[in-house]
Amino acid sequence: MTQDVNTNQRVREKPKQMTSESGLVSDSERSFDAAPPPGGARCPTLGSTVVVADDALFLEHVAPPEHPERGERLLAVRAGLERARAAAGAGMAALQVGDATEEQLARVHDPAYVEALGQMAGRSGYLDSDTYISPGSVSAARRGAGAAVSLVDALHQGRSRFGFALPRPPGHHALADRAMGFCMLNNVAIAAAHARALGRERVLVLDWDVHHGNGTEAMFYDDPSVLFVSLHQHPAYPGSGSATDLGRGDGRGRNVNVPLPPGAADATYAAAFQRVVLPIVEQFAPDFAIVSCGFDAHARDPLAQMQLSGRAFGTMTTALLSTLLEPCPLGLVLEGGYDLEGLSESSEAVAAALFSHASAEPRRLEATEPSGGGAAISREHAAALAHVQQTLLPFWRLG
Ligand SMILES: [Zn+2]
């Protein structure tokens, strides 16, 4: 079952490509600033502790040579979080993490798949063309899903309002019945289902990993209680994520895809937040929020062609926090991101945004059209966003 990692479509060199937006990155802070929700309560001072669900087992998922999903990624993220914590002079509390239970996994996964995955424990090879396993991978995956569950438990219980889970392997491509795209168990979907099981009524899953979260989408496609919003590069792996994939049945309108052409930088993501993401989040008014927190839209990432700065991940976090109504918790769960420097600076920016949120002053989010001066977005990206807005108008009031 072992396959050559170089034969798959996902693991490849990043093409040399620059964007029409290059040079505009320095405007990211200004253009991403977020306004408070009309009529909504801004978060009060919440204390500065951020909870973190991490575990030594996540480094027991050992990559083959040259595979981009490798343990050094986690070390880079840990370093970024620690720098943010030290700079803020704040607390970061480690959660006790156990394995996800059969019941927790079965909320979104086929039990037969979970059993088959368990039988792979201790073995090495590939589960699909790019999803490797090493002898410790199945244990890591079970513990990773458990980390997402532990994070939800801690936030639900009010130990903090903000937290990170740092599972390896990542999760958002994993389907109910099979591994896919470096992912074995869908950590974020397991977390969202757990929040629902705890009684949370409207769960937001915001997926800003550069790849479409096809697994998460599929698991909640007909579920109106889980709003799935994905910003992703298109075309790119895995190829899904059309704006017209809106959900099914009672869930129609609760599946929001924002596919963006390659080259999108901070200004385009700011516009996407202002025009699509934040208005929808505000109207949905989640009582629990989870981010599929991939960092592979960073400009340095080798697997995609977006151009985000590290700071943009912090400003996206701030924008989201400014739109969530008190006391909605926010848990971020690590997904992709394959450049170590990009991972480190992006995770630092997200953590810094969490630490500083309590003292942040209300600010305005601004995104400018190409003719408007300042941070412009390309016509190609403006057209993509306009298409998304038009498609969603039957379901949401959009800015
Ligand atoms: Zn990704």
Description:
This protein has 399 residues and is of the alpha/beta class. The chain has one domain (40-392): Arginase, Chain A (3-Layer(aba) Sandwich). The protein has helices at 28-32, 72-88, 102-106, 111-118, 137-156, 187-197, 214-219, 266-284, 310-323, 340-356, 379-392, and strands at 50-53, 92-94, 125-126, 132-133, 162-165, 203-207, 226-233, 255-260, 288-293, 330-334. Strands 2-1-5-10-9-6-7-8 form an eight-stranded parallel β-sheet, with helices on both faces. Helix 5 packs parallel to helix 6 (187-197), helix 8 (266-284) runs parallel beside helix 9 and helix 8 (266-284) packs parallel to helix 11 (379-392). Bound molecules: zinc ion (ZN). Residues 209-211, 294, 296, 335-336 line the site of zinc ion.
In short:
The protein has 399 residues and is α/β, with parallel strands linked by helices. The protein has 11 helices and 10 strands.
